[in-house]
Design a protein that fits this description.
The structure holds two protein chains of two kinds. In chain A, the strands form two sheets. Chain A has a six-stranded mixed β-barrel. Chain A has a two-stranded antiparallel sheet with strand order 8-9. Chain A is of the alpha+beta class. In chain A, 58% of the residues lie in helices and 17% in strands. In chain A, a hairpin with a 2-residue loop joins strand 6 and strand 7. Chain B is an alpha/beta fold. Chain B has one domain (39-60, 87-245): P-loop containing nucleotide triphosphate hydrolases (Rossmann fold), CATH 3.40.50. Chain B has eight helices and ten strands. Chain B has helices spanning 52-59, 82-92, 108-119, 123-136, 152-164, 182-197, 209-212, 232-245; strands at residues 10-21, 24-36, 41-45, 67-72, 75-76, 93-96, 170-174, 202-206, 217-222, 225-231. In chain B, strand 1 and strand 2 (24-36) form a beta hairpin. The chains are: A alpha+beta, B alpha/beta. The A-B interface holds A 1-6, 8-9, 12, 19, 23, 320-321, 323-334, 407-408, 411 and B 57, 60, 62-63, 82-83, 86-87, 89-91, 95, 97, 101-103, 105, 114-123, 126, 162.
Chain lengths: 414, 246
């Protein structure tokens, strides 16, 4: 009996709520507007942040994870000590040799120097390609994979060979439509110099909106004479994961000595980590999340107050109906349930619309900008959950008032 | 309603209901006692302010007396929780109001089904019983009309069907003809007569002695006290001259 009563009251409640919502369409729409905007904002931002997170996570793991980057420059530097760093002595062969000889923790050490140049083959030319001089250990420090041919080897570096390993985008641009094994062995022009293609890298995708495939790797010994040997290098040094902090200390000692930094002076180099990206990234998305949640909460509260207001009006309008229902045997909690259900439905309609719109906005942003957007269940559930909670929260007081009306007064109400 | 016990359906013993109006206490009911047997057709008459509305609310378990005992079909009403009183109203009492009190947005059928929803009757049985109840008051062709598509008399008959659909032990009518023209009012009164003949216990609250004359028995209230209790015709006749004046 309790079962059929609950089911009966539930279906009755839903039908009352649906009827009320449909008969006051404009009012319901205006009421839910606050919810729609609130949920839309939260969902759109969450979807974009989640999309970014997903692409960032895959990208960051594609880098060598346990690698330190010794450089003249501090990465992602936002302070004003740019001038100080600019005046530092470049890092070069001396430092590379010192680290190679003295570091006990380093598993792999690769120099990195870079320049932009034009790459060409036959009729095809690609400008603005990043040319990196490095050595065979780059394979271990960077996490790149060779898809065809081979990577640089020690003898390429020793003998200053004119050999090149191409990134996927360079392959697309310079050898369109050619098969990988045909490309290996061909000649290309890099900044007007002829190089042998010895290998092709697997595609890596984009990082922070920049392609990581638009590059060519050559021996650093070949790079220097062509692009200038005064350029400051970055030394990529890999260790076992547990040794990363020890390696940091070790490298600091080696670098300070080899560069003759007096004990009273600060380091004239910076040891960078991938984590710096992660930290700055987390700060950015954390702030974005914070703003989203703040804005979302405020609009949801405003939306909730709108719902509460309209529910108070509904209770007021239906005072006599409440009296009739009570006279016919509806318990207090039945009335309470009926109005809570109604406000939850208003909120859910708003939340549903807001979720749909939010996801649409996120997809639109993803389409029109380099940002990514994820359509995740968690975001959708969040939208619905939020709105249901708001509906229940802000609907409960009007519903409580409805449930506690004196049936005699309610029946007499004009 | 076919109970064979000798216990009265309603037992009112020294019922007092006071309201605080500012610093004053108003005795709406001031020691009312009476018994009503099963199958009786009783009119409660009195002028406005006599306490008959309060009496109706207490009888209908919508209001609790300040003191005194009220037994309805063997249950001590004043000791019940709000939920229990809701359930008691649902089971034992069928209300008919002066202003019909139908839900405007629901069809006649849905209105009549309402008490059965709160009782937990299955959907199919609910529909069947509601259709039967509407047919009993001659509205089998108006089941899917909304109240605003029905005449006053039809609306009141929907309300009567709603009051009777759950087979309550008491039909409680509050000025059922008050909002109807006299011909339609007659029609409703004839319906009450029929319902009485069919075995229903009816309690009719009215200020019109003419209606009270239809009842087997009439109780006259004045200033919250029972001032007359006798056959419908007698009490009505005694009241008639006074009510003309109002």
């Amino acid at each position: 009996m309790i079962g059929t009563r609950t089911i009966g009251e539930l279906t009755e409640g839903v039908s009352i709520a649906a009827t009320a919502l449909l008969q006051n369409r404009l009012r319901s729409m205006l009421t839910t507007l606050g919810m729609v905007i609130g949920v839309m904002t939260v969902i759109a931002i969450v979807a974009i942040v989640q999309g970014l997170n997903a692409s960032f996570a895959t990208q960051i793991s594609s880098f060598g994870a346990h690698t330190l980057y010794v450089s003249k420059w501090k990465w992602l530097n936002l302070s004003d000590d740019w001038w100080k760093m600019r005046n530092r002595q470049p890092i070069g062969k001396k430092e590379l040799l010192a680290v190679q000889h003295e570091s006990k923790l380093a598993l792999a050490i690769a120099p990195l120097c870079g320049a932009m140049a034009t790459v060409g083959h036959a009729d095809h030319e690609l400008t603005g390609v990043s040319i990196n001089g490095t050595d065979e250990q780059y394979l271990a420090t960077s996490g790149v994979e060779v898809g065809a041919g081979r990577f640089l080897v020690e003898t390429d570096v020793e003998h200053d060979r004119y050999v090149a390993v191409l990134g996927a985008e360079v392959v697309d641009g310079v050898f369109p439509g050619e098969s990988a094994d045909k490309i290996v062995g061909q000649k290309i022009l890099i900044g007007g110099h002829s190089f042998h293609v010895i290998g092709l890298l697997n595609r890596r995708g984009r990082f922070l909106g920049q392609s990581m495939d638009n590059n060519v790797l050559v021996p650093y010994t070949t790079f220097g004479p062509i692009f200038g040997s005064k350029r400051s290098w970055t030394l990529a040094v890999t260790s076992r994961p547990d040794d990363l902090n020890a390696l940091d200390n070790e490298l600091t000692g080696i670098l300070r000595r080899v560069r003759n930094v007096p004990p009273s002076k600060d380091d004239d180099f910076t040891i960078n980590r991938q984590e710096q990206f992660l930290r700055v990234y987390n700060q950015l998305t954390g702030a974005l999340y914070g703003v989203a949640i703040g804005v979302g909460l405020i609009t949801l509260i405003v939306g909730g107050i709108g719902i509460m207001n309209i529910m108070l009006v509904a209770v007021h309008e239906r005072t006599r109906e409440i009296g009739v229902r009570r006279a016919l045997g509806a318990r207090r909690r039945t009335i309470l349930f009926q109005f809570v259900l109604e406000s939850a439905m208003v909120a859910l309609v708003g939340g549903g619309l807001g979720t749909l719109l939010g996801l649409a906005v996120a997809q639109l942003v993803a389409l029109l900008s380099p940002l990514a957007a994820a359509t995740t269940w968690s975001a959708t559930a969040l939208g619905f959950g939020f709105s249901a909670v708001v509906g229940l929260l802000f609907g409960s007081w009007p519903a409580w008032r409805a449930a506690n009306l004196d049936p005699v007064e309610a029946l007499r109400y004009e | 309603m076919t109970s064979a016990t000798d216990e009265p359906l309603i037992e009112f013993a020294d019922i007092v209901r006071t309201y605080d109006v500012g610093v004053e206490k108003v005795h709406a009911l001031d020691g009312v006692s009476f018994r009503i047997l099963r199958g009786q057709y009783v009119a409660i008459i009195g002028q406005s302010g006599s306490g008959k509305s309060t009496l109706l609310n207490v009888l209908g378990c919508l209001d609790t007396p300040t003191s005194g005992t009220y037994r309805l079909n063997g249950t001590d009403v004043q000791t019940l929780s709000d939920d229990a009183r809701s359930d008691l109203r649902n089971r034992e009492i069928g209300f008919v109001f002066q202003t019909f009190q139908l839900l405007a947005r629901s069809t006649a059928l849905a209105n009549v089904e309402l008490p059965l929803i709160y009782r937990g009757t299955s959907r199919r049985e609910r529909k069947q019983l509601a259709q039967q109840a509407l047919a009993n008051v001659g509205l089998e062709n108006r089941m899917h009309h909304r109240p605003n598509e029905l005449s006053g008399g039809q609306r009141q008959r929907v309300a009567i069907a709603r009051a009777l659909v759950g087979r309550p032990s008491l039909l409680l009518a509050d000025e059922p003809t008050g909002n109807l023209d006299s011909a339609t009012g007659e029609e409703i009164i004839r319906l009450f007569d029929e319902l009485h003949r069919a075995g229903n216990t009816i309690l009719l609250v009215t200020h019109e002695p003419r209606l009270a004359a239809h009842a087997q028995r009439a109780i006259r209230l004045s200033d919250g006290k029972v001032v007359a209790d006798g056959s419908g015709a007698e009490v009505a006749a005694a009241s008639a001259p006074r009510s003309v004046g109002t």
